[in-house]
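Worked Example 4.2. Consider the chain below.
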Amino acid sequence: MTKRALISVSNKEGILEFAKELVALDYEILSTGGTKKMLQDNNVPVTAVDEVTKFPEILDGRVKTLNPMIHGGLLGKFDDPSHQAQMNEHGIEPIEIVCVNLYPFVETISKSDVTWDDAIENIDIGGPTMLRSAAKNHQYVTVIVDSNDYAQVVEELKAGGATTLETRKKLAAKVFRHTAAYDSYISNYLTEEDFPESLTMTYELKQTLRYGENPHQKAAFYQKRLSSDFSLAYATQLHGKELSYNNIQDGNAALQIVKEFDKPAAVAVKHMNPCGVGTGVTIEEAFDKAYEADPTSIFGGIIALNREVDVPTAEKLSGIFLEIIIAPSFTEEALEILSKKKNIRLMTINFAQEQQDQFKVVSVEGGLLVQEDDKFGFNEAEIKVVTDREPTEQEWEALKLGWSVVKHVKSNAIVVTDDQMTLGVGAGQMNRVGAAKIALEQAGEKAKGAALASDAFFPMSDTVETAAAAGITAIIQPGGSIKDQDSIDKANEYGIAMVFTGVRHFKH
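Applying the procedure from the previous section yields the following structure tokens:
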């Protein structure tokens, strides 16, 4: 019986060498279209699929392998007398090896000038069908969708004349993952609803991690294709040891905060909460402010900066123990200074990339929670001054800064700021006045004349009372409590300017 392999690939990397190895092992190669031409041009003997099917390619190549002569050869059980009798009756020969990869749908829709017709024409039908047929029949058929597997298949064929069942099973599982991912990209591209009746998402393995949140937990990092470059998944690591699970969580949190600012800004994060945020005329000044905000908690933290790291900033960064520094770029001299620290991760991210609308996905036991990103900022809010006194110009700047930061702090959240930096952060407390006390205690004397931002409304006036006692002169909060007037009255009593935004920023 002639051994046969069907090869039809869009990505032709390594395929010529693989085909030559199969020919040397006495396989007849069946092929179509561009793959067939490439093999013929390189003197590899090849049989056209239409010679097997006795039917020409039609409909601009949309139909060529969808034929019983092909799928009978893929799905027939080699050791089943009934199957063999039917195959013999119809002149169907088995196909032992299938090597197929698919039309480049993802690459096509990634192009800025892609048309609807281009996208539709790059939906592969025959390829996934052949792959699924071969993978279903993996007890007999070796199916390859990844060029990285060519070498192992050839090695096993040379060693034993056939691949092992264990290998065929693994390759079949990879095929079904591959076709499921392919279909998910297509369905997501065609889907216009935000929350369809079923949700299928595809992420590709970026790296396995040493461990998860704790050393006894296994972990890996997956990245989403067709996503914004403004993501840790697409960052370039210039220096340092590999990222950990917690590094990635904290790095992502730092990026989400720093992207709030157009002016030079620096963000220091610990345990997914900001411990210091600073702005300035230069990135050095911004970092000085972020460091001054909490010089204790920044130790072992993650820093995100939205401007190139220059020498003066690098010299200050190098004097602190930091896990990661993320920036659009580093000057050559700054990189040299920071690279002297063996383990620090230095990463660049494309800050110029237009940020796409994203959905946040959180796993819960047995399910997923999906929501839009909280992109609601100060400029989108319906700002309303509810007190007798309006904020001063400097207080307005402090309120804007506080409102930009508090949305990224775990609820209940209170942030105390001046017009350039955070002064105190109260995160994740079970009651709001408790969060306020933590933030105000951290701010200390700097709270006098500062602004206070709250992620949610005040259920009673005690937070205003606490803020006034510390010297706060301006407050920004959503409003919406049935006891709002109590807080307004208390603010008026102390001469505090208070602003309502109408929007809360819970972050759990």
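Residues 165-190 form the longest helix (26 residues). The chain has a mean pLDDT of 91. Compare this with Example 4.1 before moving on.
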